[in-house]
Amino acid sequence: DAGGAAQGHAALRDWAQALDVKVEPGRIYVNDGVVVVEQQTIATTGETGTAASAFRVVHDHVTSMFRHDDLAAALAATELTEADL
């Protein structure tokens, strides 16, 4: 949605298929079913950047996700820390 939040497998699939950038995962933070993935992005134009995504995992299934502009925002939103790396 416009706020960056989505839920369910279909939303995760749609998000991944709609990307117009190549995403390379970086550091991964995990605690109690919450996963934050740091991302390096490369647009089709060659422009590079960073972002992060947060996922909720329940019984080995992604149940929700949220895109963040950067790692700091994702960690703050999920209350994960360097201890969760």
Kindly describe this structure:
By secondary structure, the protein is α+β, with helices and mostly antiparallel strands. The chain has helices at residues 9-18, 71-78; strands spanning 5-7, 21-31, 34-43, 48-58, 61-68. The mean pLDDT is 90.
Write the layout of secondary structure elements.
Blueprint: E1 5-7, H1 9-18, E2 21-31, E3 34-43, E4 48-58, E5 61-68, H2 71-78
Antiparallel strand pairs: 1-5, 2-3, 3-4, 4-5
* Sheet with most strands: strand arrangement: 1-5-4-3-2
The CATH architecture is: Roll
Shape: globular
Distance N terminus to C terminus?
Answer: 28 Å
**Whole-number average pLDDT?**
90
Helix content: 10-25%
- Broad CATH class: Alpha Beta
Q: What does the radius of gyration come to?
A: 13 Å
Name the helix and strand elements from N-terminus to C-terminus, one letter apiece: EHEEEEH
Quickly count the domains.
1
CATH topology: Nuclear Transport Factor 2, Chain: A
Number of strands: 5
The fraction of residues in strands falls at: over 45%
Return the structural class.
Answer: alpha+beta
Query: Uncertain segments of ≥5 residues (pLDDT<50)?
Result: none
- What is the count of helical runs? 2
Main beta sheet strand tally, sense and closure: 5 strands, antiparallel
